[in-house]
Amino acid sequence: MPTLNDDILLLIFEAVGTSKDRRRDQSCVKTLLACCLVSEAWQRLVQPILNQVLIIDSEDHLQRRLLNRSPEDLKGVREIVLQQSHPDAHFHLDLGQVLRALPLQNLRSFICFDRATFGGYHSHDPLDRSLIGQVRYSPPPLDHDLSSVREALLCNINGGSSWTPFLLRTTKLRDLTFHGAGWTGHSEYANSPLYLPSEPAPFSLKRLEIFRSCIQKEPLRWLLSSSADSLKHLSVRYMQREWDTFADISKLRADGLLPEVHHLTFAVSDSRGVKNFDDIVRKPLAAWQGLHTMYIYGEDNKCRAAIFHGLSQLQPCPVIEMGVGDMRMIDLKSLFRLRKGKLQPGTHLRLISKRVRTEGRMGGYETWGTQDGQSHEYWSEMEEEAKELAKKHGVKLEVAEVSYYA
Questions:
Q1: Can you give the pLDDT at residue 343?
Q2: What pLDDT score was predicted for residue 186?
Q3: How far is it, in rounded angstroms, from Cα 110 to Cα 128?
Q4: Do 307 and 338 sit in the same domain of this protein?
Q5: Do the domain assignments include residue 337?
Q6: For the chain, does the N or the C end have fewer beta carbons within 10 angstroms?
Q7: DSSP string across 159-205
Q8: Same-domain pairing of 62 and 167
């Protein structure tokens, strides 16, 4: 029976120990623990991988996996994941307690899917309703050294007071994701002041991902205040009918604060019931002159068409990629029916016929429909007809399996 060398086995263990959105959860840990039971040789390879990630989703795990262990046992931790064990769980974290117990010199990734506070810092001012939506300065930075953190995923912003002390210490942060965050001062996530530091952000981001979140212009301007020359990839994935954040980001682009962003990922939303939807979507796109590629996913035809026509007006037009999902020829034809704004010659459309794995922290949450294999076969057969249709409108179309940006 053939045997695999340690390098190949390590690659396999890294793959099976990582979920579809590039993070390790409880199921990944269980898989790796099962691998440890196969043989001593496998355990020797798998144990260091297990030691790199710390997952806490209950009070019991907080005690057993962190507070009751010595700093020596925890010094290899490179990624910490804080999350609820299930949606109805009532587990409230004191992040100050977590950071005091965890050796931070090797920590590279900080992921928090849960509500959390830093000790005595309050996330909002419930008694003073006049402060809702007003800008206030945040509490001072934490005492902890978080300069080793390169990647962070943050949830439940609540006006920013929970996270600005943390962000002020992440001087080498490069990859930032907001998930279910409402840094607005008034939204379904938070009714609170907008806590903002008085000094610029200490980090220079390369990638910013906004997933089902709404962040107002003032926090956005602060977050990107030191990233004008470094930010390359922006991913905006909206809640239904939520466009304000993208409009604010586009204003920052128009003001010259995001000149180096060359790739934009955009999730189409639900256009039903929205008046002047084409203008709402296309106006912000005018600020993105110089964009190289844009990847669009989602299956609302009216929204896809509005983005497609809006990008076509940019000269030179960026390469526009769309995941086909359950798209068929009738859906493709709908892209060319938008009355406002004719498609410009030289527009380049790429239909990606296979599932794309994005690099972003929330990339695994993309939905492509359930017929990926059938979609690939369908568009292989319909490719020539689709190209003829696009040619009539002056559009160069290609059907590809691989995205430029993924």
A1: 83
A2: 56
A3: 32
A4: yes
A5: yes
A6: N
A7: GGTTTHHHHTT-TT--EEEEES-EETSSSSS--S-EEE-SSPPS---
A8: yes
Which parts of the chain have pLDDT scores under 50? 1, 86-88, 120-129, 187-190, 239-241, 358-371
> What residue numbers bound the domain in which 10 lies?
1-54
SS3 330: helix
- Structure tokens that stand for 322 in this block: 């769309």
In a domain, 247, yes or no: no
Please compute Rg for the chain using Cα positions: 23
Q: What is the DSSP string of 335-372?
A: TT---SSPPPTTEEEEEE-S----SSTTGGG----S-H
Cβ contacts of residue 229 below 8 Å, gap of 6+?
Answer: 204, 259, 260
178 to 141, 151, 163, 304: CA distances (angstroms):
20, 11, 11, 24
The runs of H, that is alpha helices, within 138-180 are: 164-167
Residues 40 and 61 occupy one common structural domain: no
Q: CA-CA distance, 12 to 371, in Å (whole number)?
A: 27
- pLDDT recorded at residue 24: 61
Nearest Cα to Cα of residue 53 among 97, 19, 7: 19
Cβ–Cβ under 8 Å, residues 178 and 213: yes
State how far the Cα of 285 lies from the Cα of 254, in Å rounded to an integer.
10
Backbone angles phi, psi at 58, to 5 degrees: -160, 165
Say yes or no: 163 and 283 in one domain. no
How far is 101 from 17, CA to CA, in rounded Å? 25
Check whether the bond before 284 is cis (ω within 30° of 0).
Answer: no
- Contact (Cβ atoms closer than 8 angstroms) between residue 270 and residue 300: yes
DSSP 76: T
- Say what the alpha-carbon torsion angle 179, 183, 187, 192 is, to the nearest 10 degrees: 130
Contact assessment for residue 202 and residue 211, using Cβ atoms and an 8 Å cutoff? no
> Comparing C-alpha atoms, which of 154, 156, 198 is closest to residue 175?
154
**Residues facing residue 398 across a β-bridge:** 350
The total number of structural domains that make up the chain: 3
Whole-number pLDDT of residue 151: 93
Q: How far apart are CA 131 and CA 185, in angstroms?
A: 9
Residue 241's Cβ-side half-sphere holds a number of Cα atoms within 13 Å equal to 6
- Structural domain contains residue 369: yes
